[in-house]
Task: inverse folding
């Protein structure tokens, strides 16, 4: 609150509890624009698939399609059974699922139209892996300033088909469409951009181009039944999904390539057991921060997105799901570490990154043998001097707000905290 005014401080961002009437009106208006889609059963994957193939054109879906479609059916079924959704939220979830299906069909068409996608090299990709709110967006934006890096941009992830070309990278009509979508999202979720930078022509995380994983939950869908399905997948199925992601990386680089692919996503932690099968020379930067900070911070961010689907946020439920996701993500990271070469990994502490970002990036490049040029360093320094919009706002959250306690989080994080300490010599937090 602003002292003495009784008015809310617009520089402070907190998680919403209820969907606002304005947001409901805007979402209802958006859904009414596609009458053909609205006439379908929006959680019927087969009907939505027929609609997408009618619009894009019939195309064979190729290898792995049975697994991919099984997953999206599980997601749709989970939404349909979940009492947390209201009618508007289910329609919004159906709109989201249709978008997934349409991108999937468009991608299958591109693979048919451009068979040379399969031959695009993906050399020495760099993956940023860690939980949300660990500084990964900050680091990703810095690393993407390297002219040799090829990081996916938000507009490319939202509308990847047809494969983007460098000569139209500033004039592609998809950029304008995404700007309009971004303005709409800002009206529905006015605080989201204050705590997570989103710009059509800025780098964004790869979860938008990964068919399955925790990203559906992170993007706002409450789907515990779907998450159980994903968690139960064996190594072979994970390999199929990861190979599908590699093909999408090749797809985006068909005409627009770089020296190395640069990606960040919380979802990568869950594919680490099979990541080197699809990317044999991958490099991995693992980001670490006090779990008592990042768990409620991510919960607060997800609440901004979840309000499109559920009229009321159950903070205790959201907090518990984020604690479980943290525990499962870090367990996957630790298990994969036992089988991988230490030369393929570097561990980044949040405090080191924020206190001296240039040295942190220089250390990553020295570790993995990338060329750290003067031009790259100059770009980073200009970027840091310019600052970011999120620095003008204070994101406020607590563990207790989400039904958690420090003791509970530390007890569930002990194995991870000890693991990080063995690798870095630093204890992230103490009881």
Result:
């Amino acid at each position: 609150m602003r002292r003495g005014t009784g008015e809310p401080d617009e520089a402070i961002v907190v998680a919403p509890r209820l969907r606002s009437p304005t947001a409901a009106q805007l979402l209802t208006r958006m859904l009414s624009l596609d009458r053909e889609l609205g006439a379908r059963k929006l959680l019927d994957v087969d009907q939505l698939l027929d609609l997408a193939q009618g619009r894009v054109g019939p195309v064979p879906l190729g290898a792995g399609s049975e697994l991919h479609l099984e997953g999206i059916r599980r997601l749709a079924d989970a939404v349909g059974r979940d009492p947390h959704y209201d009618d508007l939220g289910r329609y919004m979830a159906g709109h989201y699922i249709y978008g997934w299906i349409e991108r999937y069909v468009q991608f299958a068409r591109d693979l048919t139209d451009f068979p040379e996608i399969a031959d695009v090299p993906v050399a020495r990709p760099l993956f940023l892996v860690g939980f949300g709110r660990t500084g990964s967006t900050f680091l990703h934006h810095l690393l993407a300033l390297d002219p040799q890096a090829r990081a996916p941009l938000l507009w490319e992830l939202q509308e990847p088909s047809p494969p983007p070309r460098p000569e139209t990278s500033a004039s592609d009509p998809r950029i304008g469409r995404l700007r309009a979508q971004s303005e709409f999202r800002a009206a529905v979720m006015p605080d989201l951009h204050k705590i997570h930078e989103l710009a059509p022509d800025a780098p964004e995380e790869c979860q938008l181009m990964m068919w399955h994983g925790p990203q559906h939950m992170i993007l706002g869908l409450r789907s515990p039944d779907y998450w159980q399905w994903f968690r139960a997948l064996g190594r072979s199925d994970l390999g199929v999904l990861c190979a599908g992601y590699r093909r999408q990386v090749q797809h985006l680089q068909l005409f627009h390539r770089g020296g190395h692919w640069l990606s960040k996503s919380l979802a990568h932690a869950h594919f680490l057991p099979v990541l080197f099968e699809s990317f044999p020379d991958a490099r991995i930067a693992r980001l670490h921060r006090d779990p008592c900070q990042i768990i409620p911070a991510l919960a607060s961010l997800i609440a901004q997105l979840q309000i499109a689907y559920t009229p009321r946020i159950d903070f205790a439920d959201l907090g518990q799901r984020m604690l479980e996701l943290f525990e499962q993500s870090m367990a996957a990271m630790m298990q994969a570490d036992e089988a991988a070469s230490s030369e393929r990994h570097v561990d980044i502490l949040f405090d080191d990154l924020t206190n001296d970002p240039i040295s942190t990036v220089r250390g990553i490049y020295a570790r993995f043998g990338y060329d750290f040029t003067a031009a790259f360093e100059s770009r980073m320094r200009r970027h840091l001097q310019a600052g970011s919009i999120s620095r003008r706002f204070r994101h406020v959250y607590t563990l207790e707000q989400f039904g958690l306690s420090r003791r509970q989080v530390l007890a569930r994080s002990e194995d991870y905290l000890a693991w990080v300490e063995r690798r870095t010599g630093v204890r992230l937090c103490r009881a």
Observations:
- The first strand starts at residue 12 and ends at 13.
